[in-house]
Each structure stands twice: as C-alpha cells, then as structure tokens.
Design goal:
Layout: H1 2-13, H2 18-21, H3 35-38, H4 41-51, E1 60-65, E2 83-84, H5 94-106, H6 117-134, E3 140-144, E4 163-164, H7 167-176, E5 181-184, H8 194-203, E6 208-211, H9 213-216, H10 226-234, E7 238-242, H11 264-268, E8 272-276, E9 283-285, E10 292-294, H12 295-303, E11 312-315, H13 327-334, E12 342-343, H14 359-365, H15 370-380, H16 384-394
Parallel strand pairs: 1-3, 3-5, 6-7, 7-8, 8-11, 11-12
Antiparallel strand pairs: 2-4, 9-10
Length: 420
Amino acid sequence: MKSMLSLFTAVLFCTSCDLAISKLAGNFSGPPEQMQNALSPEAQDLIRKATTGLRLDCVRDMHVHVAGVGHEHDAFETTQEPWVNPKAQSRMNFSTFLKFKIYLNAAGIQKSELQSPEKINQDYFSRIVDLWKYGKLPGKAHLLAFDRHYNEDGTPNSENTSFYMPNHTIWDLAQKYPTMFTPVISVHPYRKDAIQELEKWGKMGVKFIKWLPNSMHIDPSRSQLEAYYDKVKELDMAILTHVGEERAVDGDQFQKLGNPLLYRKALDKGVKIIMAHVASLGNCEDFEQGGEKSCFQLFWRLFNEDKYKGILFGEISAVTLHTRIGEPLLKILENPELQVRLVNGSDYPLPAINWIYRTSQWKDLGYITDSERESLNQIYHYNPLLFDFVSKRTLHHPKTGMQLRPEIFYLPKELGGCVY
C-alpha cells in the first residue's frame, strides 16, 4: 500500500508522469515491429498454435476503442471532433487525471502534455495500425465510436460525458484500412436526431452500434425507445452494449443501467443485442425474482432462454482481467455448445494496462502453464493486442483442459459472420 501511495504521489506532482505511469500501463520493451526478432522459439510457437485451426479471414475483434482529444476552445455541444472531458486532463481531479494518463500511456503515447491534439490522435490510431499489422493479427477489428452523455430531454450533458468519439471519425479511419477495420457507430437513443442518424449510417452499410449505458445515461427499458428499437431491427443492425458494473470510464451515478434484465424490451421486439463482457463484473438487482445477484448470473439467465437464440449474443472482452476471472470464464469453458453465440473482443487499450492482466494469476489458477506464461509475457511487451488474442487461444479449463472453440473468434452468421 505504501508503494502504491508513493506512485500516486509521484503521478500527481511530477511534470512528466510517464515513468511513474508505466508501472501501471505500458512498460513495453519495444515497438511491435521489433517483436519477431525478440521472441523466444517457444513464444513464436505459441503464436503459430493460436492461429492453427482458424478460418483466418473470419476472425474478428469486436471491441477496439479509438480515443482522441480535442482543442480546449471546441464547444462541447457542437464539436464534431474527438473530445475528452477537461477534468480528466487536470491534476485537480486526481482519479480521472490518473485514469486518462494511464490510457494514453497504454496506447503508447508519452509526454502528451507536450503534443498537439492532432499529434496525439494520429499517434493513437497509428499505434493500433502497427499492432495489427506487425502482429499479423487475423481478420478485422471493429473500431468503436462513442457518443455523448445525454439528459432525458435529449440535450447533451458535458459534465457527465467522459469522452466523445464521432461516428464520422471512426468511419473515415476504417475507410483508410478496409482490410483491417470495420466501423461501429454510437447513437444515443435519447438524441433528438437518433432515428435520422441510424438511417444515415444504416444506408452506408454500418451494422453495429455501441452503447455504454452506465456512462452515456441510457435506460434500455425506457418506453420511449420503441421507435429506436424498431429502426435498429428494420435496418438489421445490432447493439453492442456494456452490461455489468463499469469502472473504465465514469459511470458510478448510473451503475444500475448496466443490468442485463433491462434489455427484455429490446429482445422481445427481436432486436439483436451483443452484451459486452458477459456482465462479468458487479452485482445487479434481480427485479424479476427478487434480491441481488451477480450481473453475470442475470446475463446467463437471458442467454439460456430459447426465445433469444439468434438475437442475444455475449462478448468476452475483459473476462480474463484479474478482477473478473472466475465464474464467467469457467461457465463459458464448461458450455462449449453455447460458445457459437459468443464473440471475441479485446477492449483495447485495456490489454495494454499491465496491472489489470496478471498472467501469474492465470498460472496459479491453472488456466495456463508456467512456460505459456513466460511466452505470453514476452508477447505482451511488444504487442498487447496480439497478447490478448493468443492468451484466449491458449488458456484452458483448470480441470477439464477444455479451450475456447474457434467459433468464438468469428461472428455468428446472424451478425453477418462466416457460415461454418
């Protein structure tokens, strides 16, 4: 505890915090292009095994965040450029400032206070491109837009918006590298122009929408969302939504909106819902059967209902975090017949935050061997995106040895994936 307090103090008062922050995020040995010559034969063999048995063109990473900063003079309500809440960039708001610096460092951006917004944004995206290209990652990554927090009257709320990543920015980035990336828009359902936005992007071929209700302030059970849901279904789109507790961005005030049971209205209308992280963190009110249960248990209840087959899917990003590993991952490994309705996601840049991914914990719990741990650590220090993919292809059930099925790394056919 004393060493952690010392680290926080160093971050708070240092002029350049990157050295202290690297204890929590980053701590890379070199750029991704140097990885191949630095890896041991065992680590290289683990990467080869990870791609064996996969239809490589079908592989998808469903959950890659793109973040960017704007200029201080940009008006929050009208800007169409990336935006980060100013409180995240001020040492006066220590927890949000620390989180902001950790994310930047994890994304390979150091000395951000000396760089222009344009340079930070370019470096962030260039880093993703390099990780994907030099890691020779198979398939494509889904790049996520991120809408503002909105009040119930449809007005944007700057105080509670953590960051904003416009749809057109994500679209433009994906168009530059169409063989690597797929755009995922974010349209808040309380927006006054929500239906028009869905129609606009639906006509352009976009199939996925990103929500984070705890942060954005979205109640999925709200009766006013019926027209929104009807339009999503009409356009054959799907909503990728966070469920469970949220810690990565501010959301404490609205944690109850991460309850999986709130999606019954959308599911009963036939809307395709992809529940990110399979609600693998936190407890939620069970307002159907009473009491409080883990959010994952409520997800699992919905997921096992026959009437939701073909419309309800789970997404497994973050299930290997040290705070989440346990029942969710074990349940998934123990039910291979359900894995065809699950999809993979990295939740980048989270895999680059070294203190929340603990390979020593995986080894101690029996998910990987000591040799596999050593190889995964080597991969992490050059390419955290590849690390996330290879670790999920490597880990196994501690008792049965069962691994994740290849289909988890594809999209189900109902979501436009390969037919297998």
